[in-house]
Automatic annotation (TrEMBL), chains A, B:
Enzyme Commission (EC) number: 3.4.17.19
The organism's taxonomic lineage, starting at the top: Bacteria, Pseudomonadati, Nitrospirota, Nitrospiria, Candidatus Troglogloeales
Record's cofactor remark: Binds 1 zinc ion per subunit.
Name of the protein this chain belongs to: Metal-dependent carboxypeptidase
Binding sites annotated in the UniProt record for Zn(2+): H270, H274, E300
Keyword annotations: Carboxypeptidase, Hydrolase, Metal-binding, Metalloprotease, Protease, Zinc
Family classification: Belongs to the peptidase M32 family.
Length: 507, 507
């Protein structure tokens, strides 16, 4: 049986590529946090050049030489007898290699440059709510992704080729019934909630809350979660995100609004959940699939588990509400814990995905998923996006954007060519509840610990069960290993009913 | 006659390498500004890997193929007839290529990793004033530089091989008489100043000055100098520095001390001078020698020209002192412009180079130059550095460090292997005065403009005369083109006498 030790030269080569990827990541992080505005064009060239270089190395002769010793490059068949971990490593490296060889290096450079410029124009366009300014860049990105589908190929839907990059193995054929089942339950539940005579009072969330104190409180929660500030940091950016240059250098960002007590806090907890995953990866295997996050859906499960499963739970606020109230005695004067808990769990159809509650969030995703399929499967012209967006928002959420900034321009994803990404958010929601249920089952005292502010047992459980495995198991196998069964949306539906039933007095 | 257009493929290849170098620069910048402390080991690996990659590309088969079309790779002889600019480009590219081919790629990686770790240990050692902690790393760096000399070779002194990396063409044989001439004039002048009965009052500089206001004033001065904040920024770091990822992305850092009014201000002006050079390089030729700074000495001439020639001059403070006094009405209460001007020009032998005045600064450099020569030419053991340092400080400046943090550990340079770098500071001082004299000669109204706060004519002159030329001319030719004569230390000596004579009433 061959072991990881036998793969040392390959691992070292993968880590060289990883250093290039980390350079790309720091350029991106910098672009969103500290880059001077006039550096945009140069940054686009830098990203394009490094992206092309990383791509060249990942398909070049040295990669072929190293990989072909152990894998048939055509079929992906692994030669010889291997331990489980190196076998998985070879499986995943070949998968990436096979995909990357399909993309011409010229395309990779062209894409990197176009997406960097497009992202910068999107920032401008969103600021001015100017869709026509962004439109030609969006068209370029869609065309580039279609070109990519042409290189990669697909079986059933061209959209599968894109989806697979974010959620390996997932297909439109699997998603459609999953989303239908969800819609069938969520829409009537939302209906009941919207029309319930019981509506949480939450106007106090918009009092004045000093930004510095908000950030300090978020910091405190991140520390309780086990986010390691010795190997990570938090900065400000227009759109919160998590990035990692190594498990010992994981960075999150947030934005803060004086008149919104929850926005910065929940973005911190959300990105903190992502960051715990990245900090929990195996450092010595970083750059190899065994030291990489399983999929975006699993990544999102970690952020949503912390943001919603913990951050919007009763035990969590049992400990943290008194601290928050002490931090903001004026803003929260007279607000009792029950009122605060209900306010944190307000369900209200709204325009902005990242500010949506747990229930309507998935309807935002459905709007995007359907538009993406129309763009890719039916060649919908990008000109029609704003009206289609507004139409679907009215249909599923009963609200229509007053401007494109609050509509079709709100998300960064499409500007960087990330089409096929949105469904992973809903998958993340489903995984998160299934994982958290299992954690509670295995640790009956967990909620008691959380109520004491002790979040570390949960973090440790996630480290052990999910983070440390990287991509060793395919997603469906990982879910089965952790929870004993495949992805099952009924946990999520049940969770929503059990949470919102009492708050809104609906059944 | 062939033109730059003929070199397009080479230029594009050089720019690809530049993008790697820019990635290295941003990793360095980040290491000094925002990197989480626990990321040091990973950062060292990233820097090592990218440094090796950039080196591989700059000596690899593609480089050879491109360059050998126009240059004999053995002799450096340029084939065919070329315009002045492409001829210079080929001359400099071959020079870099020839040097780089002498270094094994394995050595480059080893050096990058060792220097990154050594720099991090130095930070720790300086903080604790613990020379023994740093010593093994310093020994490694010295050994690595000696190994490098072995690869590069030299004619007269092994030290020349190192010096040439920072100040191409400069040699120990040229420096020794230059420094001797300087010492002959400076030591008696310092003697007179120290014993003069007239000593500026400067205790008010150590009153309390709110850091934020200090930074805002520095920002205002940088704007007046023409530093472009749209294509640059300023951050905080332990040791002020300037770095550039492109002429549209130039970054400076400073540190600020509530009880030192001048430290942050003059570091801002100093780094601002460097930054104007970097912002003034030709963006379309960035990554080629024509879009690169001529030498460290010329770079330093720009920072010192602004810091001392302008920032410590009467016309400058004629405009800025009233503003500063309005910013700090309490701290500067009752301090008249004459008193302030004298305080800004206090000469006082002290321990720290970066805080030294214009006169004693060069004595600090001589201490380092002599120690470096002893390390390289005479194999002085690093164990003996602290005592030799203290001995020389006593000899030249009449002061002896109370701790290694204020002595041999104060500078970052040796920790990163930058041996042979220090002499460029004194060269910069000499060039700066010679350049500024010429600017005043060509623009008789210059001092009048400066007294009105209009610093832009000088910036424009420097852009035109120095920045835009990159490495088109060798340093001695550049100096001759700008000032009509070769480097001449008498300008500097005369400048010091004319400035300090009246302040200290010495002749």
């Amino acid at each position: 049986m061959k072991t990881l030790q036998d793969l040392k030269p390959l691992i070292e080569y993968l880590q060289e590529i990883q250093h290039l990827s980390s350079a790309i990541s720091i350029f991106h992080w910098d672009q969103e946090t500290y880059m001077p505005p006039g550096a945009g064009q140069a940054r686009a060239q830098q990203l394009s050049s490094l992206g092309g270089l990383a791509h060249d190395k990942s398909v070049g002769p040295e990669m072929q030489r190293l990989l072909s010793q152990w894998v048939d490059l055509k079929s992906g068949e692994i030669k010889g007898e291997w331990d489980e971990a190196p076998q998985a490593l070879l499986r995943e490296v070949w998968r990436d290699y096979d995909k990357a060889t399909k993309l011409p290096s010229e395309y990779v450079r062209r894409f990197a440059k176009a997406s960097s410029i497009s992202e910068q124009v999107w920032v401008e366009a969103r600021k001015k709510s100017d869709f026509p300014l962004f439109m030609p860049h969006l068209k370029t990105m869609v065309d580039l992704k279609k070109e990519e589908i042409g290189y990669i190929g697909y079986k059933d839907s061209p959209y599968d080729a894109l989806l697979d990059a974010y959620e390996p193995g997932m297909t439109v054929a699997q998603l459609v019934p999953l989303f239908a089942a969800l819609k069938q339950e969520l829409v009537p539940l939302l209906e009941k909630i919207v029309h319930s005579p019981v509506q949480p009072k939450d106007d106090f969330l918009r009092h004045s809350y000093v930004p510095e104190k908000q950030l300090a409180f978020g910091h405190q929660v991140l520390e309780a979660m086990g986010f390691n500030f010795n190997t990570g940091r938090q900065d400000l950016s227009a759109h919160p995100f998590t990035t990692s240059f190594h498990p010992t250098d994981v960075r999150i960002t947030t934005r803060v609004d004086e008149h919104d007590l929850l926005s910065s806090l929940f973005s911190s907890i959300h990105e903190g959940g992502h960051a715990l995953y990245d900090q929990g990866l195996q450092a010595d295997l970083y750059g190899t699939p065994l030291g990489e996050a399983r999929s975006l859906g699993v990544h999102e499960s970690q952020s949503r588990l912390w943001e919603n499963g913990i951050g919007r739970s009763k035990p969590f606020w049992g400990h943290f509400y008194p601290i928050l109230q002490k931090t903001f005695p004026e803003g929260l004067r007279g607000v009792d814990p029950e009122t605060f808990y209900a306010a944190v769990n307000t369900v209200r159809p709204s325009l902005i995905r990242v500010e949506a509650d747990e229930l309507t969030y998935n309807l935002h995703i459905m709007v995007r998923f359907e538009i993406e399929r129309a763009l890719i499967e039916e060649n919908l012209p990008v000109e029609e996006l704003p009206s289609l967006w507004n139409e679907k928002m009215g249909q599923y959420l009963g609200v229509v954007p007053d401007s494109d900034a609050h509509g079709v321009l709100q998300d960064i994803h499409w500007s960087g060519g990330a089409i096929g990404y949105f469904p992973t958010y809903t998958l993340g929601n489903l995984y998160s509840v299934q994982f958290l249920n299992q954690a509670k089952k295995e640790m009956p005292g967990l909620e008691g610990e959380i109520a004491k502010g002790n979040l570390l047992p949960l973090k440790k459980w996630l480290n052990e069960k999910i983070h440390r495995w990287g991509k060793q198991y395919p997603t469906d196998e990982l879910v089965r290993r952790v929870t004993g069964e495949p992805l099952n949306p009924t946990y999520f539906i049940q969770y929503l009913k059990e949470k919102f039933g009492p708050i809104y007095r609906v059944t």
